[in-house]
Amino acid sequence: MDARKLNETAQSMVAGDKGLLAMDESTPTANKRFAAAGIPQNEETRRAYRDMIVTAPGLGDCLNGAILVDETIHQKTTAGVSFAQALAKVGIIPGIKVDAGAKPMAAHPDEKITHGLDGLRERLAEYAALGARFAKWRAVITFGDRIPSDACIDANALILALYAALCQEAGLVPIVEPEVLMDGDHTMERCAEVTERTQHALFAQLVAQGVLLEGIILKPNMVVPGLKCPHQNTNEEIADATVQCLLRTVPAAVPGVTFLSGGQSGELASARLSAMNARFKGRMPWALAFSFARAIQEPAMQIWHGEDANVPAAQKALVHRARCNVAARRGEYTSAMEKQ
Q1: What pTM does this model have?
Q2: What confidence score (pLDDT) does residue 70 get?
Q3: Smaller CB count within 10 Å for the chain: N or C?
């Protein structure tokens, strides 16, 4: 393990006012979103969509990194350049999603555990050879009657730590993503409690497994009420609760926190990230950035609609949403930016 190189890559992933783009939807998820938008679902259409993203003019001004999937990292742009190389040429660090998805957890109804450790060492070596410099693994924590259980939280924390250790062995920075889902009617306070439990368990396991904290990135959920909760807190309340949770759980050695959007609209995700950076400027030991998927991609997908003629307008919408999040990192995002 090259500690210096890992730290340099992790620092580069959250440098300046930029963030990460999650374009790592699995094939079933990508096809589901295409179907909802009336776009054909096949490998070439997925390649063309990701080509539209990767070749968007100005994208490198907004992003430090982009997370790919196995299919995409083996594909090429229309110009015949691998996606990893095309990203690197504009200063965007290529990364790769390596988990095999969340599956039902034995003996724990309604809870899930993420699979994919089998053969991971060999896959990480392959992805590094293809140009990846970081990886991502997502764990899912679900709300419900008497859940999440300690067993589910602890098992996912251990697996995230084992994955992270393998990544660092391969020279890749691990993004550790313990996502506490927004689904449900729970309050913001309940989300804060579960998120804190989850992150305490995660960092205990990361330390136990010998993971270099200076060489990781945390990708957590924001502390928000459930989508069905009758009381939806203000952006400022969410910003305060989220940063308070991070200050209680995330060691200062970690270079950065890149939030997932988790089903929030692009506007809400930007506004809440901006509120955090504005209200806590100079008071946090790590960078607060973004690693959004739909919150950046959704307008572009709707405009593109699988048509080559729509590519320029779709790319413009994509870069605009990314720039909104650059403003959010500065604490300067306003809803008026959406109309520019």
Answers
A1: 0.97
A2: 97
A3: C
Question: So which residues are the catalytic ones?
Answer: 177, 219
Q: Which residue has the tokens 């308070």?
A: 244
Enumerate residues 6+ apart whose C-beta is below 8 A from 49: 30, 34, 39, 301, 304, 306
List the CATH number of the domain containing 85.
3.20.20.70
Rg of the chain, C-alpha, whole Å: 19
- Could you report the per-residue pLDDT of 195-207, keeping only the tens digit for each? 999 999 999 999 9
pLDDT at 123: 98
Structure tokens at 135: 């990886």
Q: Using CA atoms, how far apart are residues 89 and 9, in angstroms rounded to an integer?
A: 16
Which residues make Cβ contacts (< 8 Å) with residue 29, sequence separation at least 6?
none
Confirm whether 152 is domain-assigned.
Answer: yes
Tell me, what's the pLDDT at 108? 96
Q: DSSP letter string over 115-167?
A: ---TTHHHHHHHHHHTT--EEEEEEEE--BTTBS-HHHHHHHHHHHHHHHHHH
The answer as to whether 76 is a domain residue is yes
HSE-up (13 A, CA, CB side) for residue 136: 30
List b or e across 19-30, with b for residues whose CB sees 16 or more CB atoms inside 10 angstroms: bbbbbbbeeeeb
Q: How far apart are CA 59 and CA 186, in angstroms?
A: 37
Contacts from 71-80 at CB under 8 Å and sequence distance 24+?
71/27, 71/43, 71/46, 72/23, 72/24, 72/46, 72/47, 73/127, 73/130, 73/131, 73/132, 74/130, 75/47, 75/50, 77/51, 78/48, 78/51, 79/55
pLDDT, tens digit (0-9, with 9 covering 90-100), for 143-181 = 988 999 999 999 999 999 999 999 999 999 999 999 999
Which residues are 82's β-sheet partners? 76
Domain that holds residue 201: 3-330
Instruction: Name the nearest CA neighbour of 175 among 115, 99, 247, 100.
Output: 99
Closest CA to 19 of 252, 258, 253: 258
**264 within 8 A of 224, measured Cβ to Cβ:** yes
Q: How many domains does the chain have?
A: 1
